[in-house]
Amino acid sequence: MKLINIGFGNLINVDRVVAVVSPESAPVKRVMQDAREKGMLIDATCGRKTMAVIIADSGHVVLSALQPEMMANRLGDSSFEEESGNE
User: Fold this and answer.
1) What are phi and psi of 69, to 5 degrees?
2) How many other CB atoms sit within 10 Å of the CB of residue 73?
3) pLDDT tens digit sequence for 32-69
4) What's this model's pTM, rounded to 2 decimal places?
5) What integer best gives the mean pLDDT of the chain?
6) 23-44 burial, b for 16+ CB within 10 Å, e for fewer?
7) What is the rounded distance in angstroms from the CA atom of residue 22 to the CA atom of residue 53?
8) pLDDT at 78 (0 to 100)
9) What is the reported pLDDT for 22?
């Protein structure tokens, strides 16, 4: 299991991440609202502005105060480390 920091000491399992998106579009806002109503929304922003929405394969939606580009870099770095470790 590979964990990455999504801000403020909060960690998620990289293997469960389906998408990291910006919270600005209407479809993403609907996904967030649906997850909130179902009890599947996890707010990891610690009171800060939501900058990235992480969608997991379990249906959970995680809000992060980090920008999507930073999240993508962290996800990319962890998969690179995993691949390079297998050589």
Assistant:
1) -65, -40
2) 12
3) 999 999 999 999 999 999 999 999 999 999 999 999 99
4) 0.84
5) 89
6) beeeebeebbeebeeeeebbeb
7) 6
8) 55
9) 95
Interatomic CA distance for residues 28 and 33, integer angstroms: 9
pLDDT band at 86 (very low <50, low <70, confident <90, very high): very low
Residues ≥6 apart with Cβ < 8 Å to 53: 20, 21, 22, 23, 28, 31, 32, 61, 62, 63, 64
At 36, phi and psi to the nearest 5?
Answer: -60, -45
Backbone angles phi, psi at 65, to 5 degrees: -90, 0
DSSP code at position 9: T
- How far separated are the first and last CA of the chain, in Å rounded? 19
Q: What values do phi and psi take at 54, rounded to 5? A: -105, 125
